[in-house]
Amino acid sequence: VPSITSAHSWAGPVPTLSPETKPYWDAAAEGTLLLQKCADCQKMQYPYRAQCCHCWSTQIEDYPSAGVGHIWSYSVVRRHRTGKNGGGPYAVIVVELEGGIKFMSNLEEADLDAVAIGDAVQVRFDGYAEGAIPVFVPFRDEQIDD
Ligand SMILES: [Zn+2]
Question: Which residue from 4, 39, 57, 87 has the highest number of Cβ atoms inside 10 Å of its Cβ?
Answer without folding.
Answer: 4
